[in-house]
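Q: What residues go here?
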């Protein structure tokens, strides 16, 4: 079963695009360190650790700095050995200057695992990095963020009066998430103008798949909104597409709009599973290439239920990663027209590993290529029909203002 194959390869938007709701499955890692209280006296080695001589490194400077901080730093209450230890690891990982490769503390790792399960507490917004700035990829439907009029593309300049300059996504997540009922103040920037919003956190429950029906004149259309490629996506997808397939066979609907807007991605294998619903057996969906791993081809391995239904796919700047694989494959085989705005542009693959003490490490291990050879990293996918939803200042998006969806339905009627 496809789900059992989903163990470690993820497509994570912009440093992983943290959904405030993304979570991951991980493989085991056996490197263990026993006791932070021993950190200032020795490096604890095991067989997996690189030999210092090979690397030509002398850790004396590290411990010299550590000891000087312990002796001389003015605020002794801030000398937390565990926190300093994790900080040192984060610094090592961030020195690679790849925003998609990062270390997670046990607490951050636990939160990340919970996210793709679809339940967490926070403001309900997907975060990303753009030009090294924290940006709202998309507020979740009916979330506190959406109700506070937060929009996709808003930069977060401050969190509770703290500047976000130089922050990683895990830092931003840890500051913005919090228990239900608590408040967080965000200084946002939209169209070069700053404004502040206060948001009360709540429990966020994310459904991967939402199925509704649209009607124009005497014709009906299925509208399938895909929010993420998470733990429950394939099961929810099967349930919804069974219904769509039945209505299509019975002549109750004239086509399908697949909405990938503001979907930050998730599991690569899930994007392959969903693409297989619309493409013939054996068609290549995506190719994964790397200098450290063998090339891997993902193609259609099952018979889809919606091979002939007229299909329009909606994308925007919040469509990323696994969303771009799905949209790109359907575009490359002329299976669907893309309507909306250019997608985010995330073309790399991360391997997520469980470390000792519950910590985690995400490492960029490969890039993925669409069937016609496109690597869309930092470029995104251009829609066949460009349509922008224009929202009045002070207003929130609504069905009435969704010109992209209206255009998609018009294309199905043609």
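A:
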């Amino acid at each position: 079963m496809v789900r059992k194959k989903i163990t470690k390869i993820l497509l994570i938007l912009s440093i992983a695009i943290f959904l405030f709701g993304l979570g991951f499955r991980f493989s085991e890692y056996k490197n263990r360190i026993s006791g932070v209280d021993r950190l200032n006296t020795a490096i604890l080695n095991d067989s997996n650790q690189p030999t210092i001589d090979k690397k030509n490194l002398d850790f004396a400077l590290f411990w010299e700095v550590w000891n000087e901080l312990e002796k001389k730093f003015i605020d002794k209450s801030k000398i937390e050995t565990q926190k300093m230890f994790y900080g040192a690891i984060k610094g090592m990982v961030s020195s690679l200057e790849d925003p998609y490769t990062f270390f997670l503390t046990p607490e951050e790792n636990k939160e990340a695992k919970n996210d793709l399960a679809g339940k967490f507490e926070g403001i309900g917004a997907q975060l990303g990095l753009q030009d090294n700035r924290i940006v709202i990829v998309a507020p979740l439907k009916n979330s506190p963020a959406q109700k506070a009029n937060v929009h996709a593309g808003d930069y977060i300049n401050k969190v509770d009066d703290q500047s976000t300059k130089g922050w990683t996504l895990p830092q931003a997540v840890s500051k913005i998430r919090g228990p239900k009922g608590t408040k967080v103040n965000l200084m946002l920037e939209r169209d070069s103008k700053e404004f502040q919003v206060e948001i009360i956190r709540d429990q966020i429950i994310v459904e991967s798949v939402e199925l509704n029906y649209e009607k124009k004149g005497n014709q009906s259309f299925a509208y399938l909104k895909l929010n993420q490629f998470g733990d429950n996506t394939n099961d929810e997808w099967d349930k919804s597409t069974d219904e769509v397939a039945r209505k299509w066979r019975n002549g109750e609907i004239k086509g399908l709009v697949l909405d990938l807007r503001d979907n930050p991605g998730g599991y690569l294998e899930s994007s392959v599973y969903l693409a297989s619903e619309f493409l013939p057996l054996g068609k290549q969906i995506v190719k994964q290439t790397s200098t450290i791993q063998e090339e891997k081809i993902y193609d259609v391995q099952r018979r889809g239920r919606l091979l002939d239904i007229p299909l329009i796919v909606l994308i925007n700047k919040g469509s990323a990663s696994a969303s771009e694989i799905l949209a790109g494959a359907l575009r490359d085989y002329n299976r669907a027209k893309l309507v909306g705005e250019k997608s985010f542009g995330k073309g790399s693959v991360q391997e997520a590993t469980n470390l000792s003490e519950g910590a985690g490490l995400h490492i960029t291990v490969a890039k993925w290529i669409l069937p016609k050879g496109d690597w869309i990293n930092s470029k995104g996918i251009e829609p066949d029909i460009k349509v922008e939803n224009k929202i009045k200042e002070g207003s929130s998006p609504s069905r009435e203002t969704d010109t992209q969806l209206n255009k998609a339905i018009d294309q199905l009627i043609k």
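A: Context that may help when evaluating the design: The chain is about 25% helix and 25% strand. The longest strand covers residues 360-369.
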